[in-house]
Write a structure and sequence with these properties.
Radius of gyration of chain A: 14 Å
Largest sheet of chain A: 6 strands, mixed, barrel
Largest sheet of chain B: 9 strands, mixed
CATH architecture of chain A: Beta Barrel
CATH topology of the largest domain in chain B: Rossmann fold
Radius of gyration of chain B: 23 Å
Number of strands of chain A: 6
Distance between the termini of chain B: 45 Å
Number of domains of chain B: 2
Largest interface: A-B, 54 and 75 residues
Shape of chain B: globular
Oligomer: heterodimer
Strand order of the largest sheet of chain A: 1-5-2-4-3-6
CATH class of the largest domain in chain B: Alpha Beta
CATH class of chain A: Mainly Beta
Number of domains of chain A: 1
Chain lengths: 129, 431
């Protein structure tokens, strides 16, 4: 099913913004908030996982039931997970489509990658003190 | 030791009424801060990078400060098109060294502005900025509009310091008199405290702003029964609330800078405010994110004439967001070296832009290890402005505030490190 991916700030994302290797950061920014009716249509339950695929690629996230999210949209706290699917296209403005990326969601049994795993997949070398 | 009137270096509210208690070089208590501010002060020491580090094929190893500076200078001097990115989490004095450095190097300098309120600036350049200080809003505004903004999560004290929950000098019973309108595509926590919440369909901001402009202009007969999911009745009611207000303050967030239309949405919002000023007094303020992202725009503008995304490759300042902005330059693999200061693009840029950071020599100057560290050759830790470094910051309304240092953790400041790198670059370039 196609959804509009909407990213934004949350308190927990803000609290962990200087602690990107802490599990709390990954926990917050890998949450895909969905309307319960959309969850029913997609056949997923709270806490299960979805593969989110957009123009730049795909990533697995946890589903969080959220009545405040509108039909056919999903909300993901701003961060490294959402950015796995968002394109670099800025339409001549410098600003990517952080709130309007069309993404396909499908239930999956695949695991949610950790932040170091995501970084390694992009050629990075995570720093662990 | 108790430090009073401490300025919080988290968001662009720059709350300047914090009380912070330190004991033997440790922060032990913070009063008056929000959850984000508390967390920033109380957990800061747990996550600092202790010394410069460099990447080797087998992993990370420590480096001397001298080596880190030598190598950074070598990388920047050896690059044809270096990108100097970040700058929103440091003080204005360091930002100004960055702009000088970009000019001498013939590089590109951009700040996190390009991925937050860059579109707001593009709109302001088209139609102007009917702004005011937050003090004016606090003391006069009897109507506050938050459009595409969720201050309860992103700027938690904005409502208690400047709008909904604060007293106003020219308002008798501000708490009761002040009305709040929230516009969003989801029912955020901020929507829960609104007198009127407008739930619009995704991507409907431009249409709803246009409808409100038409109603305020007296053309309500041309408005259909619903606009982007909003009923005509509600639009008429909102327009009336705005016109009847003695002083309205419009705040907007990334909910309209990052949706389709981008800067055209903001232009429409400014023109709605312009329209409302034919009936009453109305102002508009972007809800800036980082505590000194506005500062970079100020510094860069007074030094180059442009607020961000400035390219010096022609030997003069050239500005064209979409071409000279960081995401675009990285996506086109155009830069051949990158200096990241006080931000974390690897967490906040689309992944194909991030990938290029790892393909070129990248150096980061930042107090904390973050996701960008993984793509760097070197990282130099520095003091945190507002904790162990001081400097000038600009609040979201453009008011400069001196941010204090409350203890010494033995780190050099951004100004120290950048100043030395700049001195060495000038020496090599003989300028």
């Amino acid at each position: 099913m196609i959804f509009t991916l909407n990213t934004g700030r949350t308190i927990q994302q803000g609290n962990n913004v200087e602690m990107k290797y802490h599990p709390d950061y990954a926990k917050e920014v890998s949450r895909c908030h969905m309307n319960p009716l959309d969850m029913l249509d997609l056949g997923v339950m709270d806490g299960e996982r979805v593969r989110v695929t957009g123009p730049a690629g795909s990533v697995v996230m946890y589903v969080v039931q959220d009545e405040t999210v509108s039909h056919s949209t999903v909300f993901v706290p701003y961060g490294i997970y959402a950015n796995q699917v968002i394109s670099t296209e800025t339409h001549g403005t410098g600003m990517p489509d952080f709130k309007t990326t069309e993404a396909n969601l499908e239930p999956t049994e695949d695991s949610v990658l950790t932040v170091p795993e995501l970084l390694r997949a992009l050629g990075g070398m995570p720093y662990v003190a | 030791m108790l430090h009073e009137d401490v300025v919080c270096p988290f968001c662009a509210c720059l709350c300047d009424d914090l009380k912070v208690e330190t004991d033997n070089g440790t922060i032990v208590k913070v009063d008056n801060a929000c959850d984000l501010g508390n967390h920033k002060f109380l957990t800061d020491d747990d996550h600092r990078l202790k010394e410069p580090i460099r990447r080797t094929p087998s992993g990370w190893t420590s480096a001397t400060l001298q080596h880190a500076i030598d190598r950074t200078v070598e990388i920047l001097l050896g690059a044809d098109r270096p990108l100097l990115y970040g700058w929103s989490g440091t003080h204005g004095e360091a930002q100004s060294i960055g702009v000088h450095m970009a000019e001498v190097l013939g590089g590109v300098i951009d700040s996190t502005t390009s991925v937050c309120h860059g579109p707001s600036i593009l709109a302001i350049q088209e139609v102007g900025h009917p702004g005011c200080t937050l003090g004016q809003v606090k003391n006069r505004a009897d109507l506050v509009v938050y459009w595409g903004a969720n201050p309860i999560e992103a700027h938690p004290r904005h409502m208690s310091r400047y709008t909904t929950y604060t007293d106003g000098f020219f308002l008798d019973r501000a708490f009761k008199e002040r009305k709040v309108i929230v516009v969003d595509i989801r029912r955020t926590q901020t929507a829960e405290v609104a007198d009127e919440f407008i739930l619009i369909k995704k991507g409907g901001d431009y249409a709803v702003l246009s409808a409100l402009r038409a109603i305020v202009r007296g053309k309500s007969d041309m408005i259909p029964a619903t606009v982007a999911g909003v009923t005509k009745e509600q639009l008429l009611r909102i327009a009336e609330m705005c016109k009847k207000a003695k002083f309205g303050a419009f705040f907007f967030g990334m909910g309209i800078t990052q949706t389709q239309g981008k800067y055209k949405n903001i232009r429409n919002a400014i023109e709605l405010v312009d329209e409302l000023n034919r009936h009453t007094k109305f102002t508009l303020t972007p809800m800036r994110g980082h505590y000194n992202v506005y500062g970079f725009n100020e510094v860069c503008t007074w030094m180059t004439g442009y607020p961000y995304a400035v390219d010096f490759c022609r030997g003069m300042a050239f500005y064209n967001p979409g071409e000279t902005s960081a995401v675009d330059i990285l996506a086109r693999k155009e830069c051949d070296a990158c200096l990241v200061v006080a931000s974390d693009p690897a967490a906040h840029f689309p992944k194909d832009a991030v990938r290029h950071l790892g393909e070129i020599p990248t150096v980061q100057i930042d107090p904390y290890p973050n996701t960008t560290t993984a793509f760097c050759e070197l990282q130099i830790p520095v003091a945190v402005t507002g904790i162990d470094a001081q400097g000038t910051s600009y609040r979201m309304d453009g008011v400069p505030i001196r941010v204090k240092s409350i203890l010494n953790r033995g780190y050099p400041t951004d100004t120290d490190i950048l100043g030395e790198i700049y001195r060495r670059i000038k020496e090599a370039k003989r300028v």
